[in-house]
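Memo subject: From amino acid sequence to discrete backbone structure tokens
Action wanted: Derive the backbone structure tokens from the amino acid sequence.
How to read it: Take the token row as a discrete description of the fold.
Attached in line: The record itself begins immediately under this heading.
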Amino acid sequence: MKTGPFDSLRDYIHALESNDRLIRIKQMDQDKYEATGFAYRLVKEYGYDLAPAFLIEKIKINNQWLNGPIIGNLFGGWDAEALIYGVNDLGASQSISRKKTFNHLKSLNLDNKGWPKLPPVTVDKENAPCKENIVIDKDVDILKFPWLQTNPADAGRYINAATIFIEDKELGRNVATYRCQVKAKNKIGFNAEIRQNAWSFLSKMKERGEKTAAVAIANGVDPITFTLGASKVAKLGEDELDYAGGIRGKPVEMVQCETNNILVPAHSEIVLEGEIPLDKMEEEGPYGEMYGFMGLKKNENFFMEVKAITYRDDPWVVNSFAGVTKISPSILQTVGNFLNYKTFIPYLMDVYRPAESTGVLTASIKKEKSGQGMEAGKILAEKDFFAKVIIVVDEDVDVYDKGEIFQALGTRWQPYPAAEVIEKMRGMPLDASAAERFSTSKIIIDATRQYKDEGGPPIWPDISKVMLEEMSPETTKLVDENWLKYFED
């Protein structure tokens, strides 16, 4: 089995396909939003976390058939995340894939007393696949690439799974992912949300009196570099590429742009180079957000004038299908969150935020005394930016298993007194239900077995699954060893 870390998107996709973890489709009609409908159905059939990646060889856009491939649900399945980080010997179990990847990244962090860093290296153009084709100035035409309009209510076609590079003499380098509306053959919208790092970079440049900001946008980078750009591992002033190199175990290879001094990953599929005017704004959106609702049109947003395009022969395009499929690997961020939260909650055992329901956070604890469930919930409510529903369960409950979570809610939890509503806390800016941006109410649900002095029953019955594990410890090992044999003809 070929596993990562991978130098390019293509290496990763080839590994998925060689391990039967990719669906290949000959053609789809996006004028009828066929790819979007397929993505919805795929998630419905497999589940959000476990739906596999898919590749479309040719796609119809504006009544023209364009060559792909277009990649969707790039990081679907826990086994795909395992491949990214070089974790193998997975068998057929998605659960084992997740646990092994989690433990691998956890050990990497703890052994290095934080995420390891390894600075990127610069290569010559001759050794950079993204320089196989170079188009500059009047010949620039981004419309020939198969960027998708994912939803008919979107403002148009979007570049929504690219990694954006901005460099500043004071703040350093920012690597991030923001949606970019395709507006013309040489112009795109640039949605740097308020309080995001790119917004801070552009604001700093504007304060210094600069008129434009140089930017590069790379579609189709290696999966770990993309993950760091889509995560909050690096803070403002830190370089995401240092962490990407450290986690990869080898530096990210970079190459200089044609029209500015920004460095971009040498193995990118497509690179757009350009400038953002800092004294002008344009309307942008609406757009189907990653949280499953239509984001409103913005009357004023940044835009970028594209000065050059460099790309590989027959470039591959990634589309995020925001709000439908998984848009980035999640285990790396989960490990970072867990280790951070555990410094405040020593008895924390596991934590998980389902990506399809970002406002929900589930956590398990090793409960040893009254009040620990609610105590843990309050700390998580304060520390976790996204969560507005915090569900705390006992350590025997798998926080990734919705069935076990629902069972705990139905059999271990009483709404009174084991729940508390917090009227106002810091919240996620894209929460469509919030009357005030960056503000939300939260609810803590203590679904641990309540002791008598917490309002629980005098005696709790034994849990069937726990009794099986305690009285027949060989059962789980036996089933794991024979799992693949059960499905043989």
Q: What stands out?
A: The chain has three domains: 9-109, 116-318, 345-460. The chain has a mean pLDDT of 93. DSSP finds twelve helices and 24 strands in the chain. Residues 373 and 446 are 5 Å apart (CA to CA).
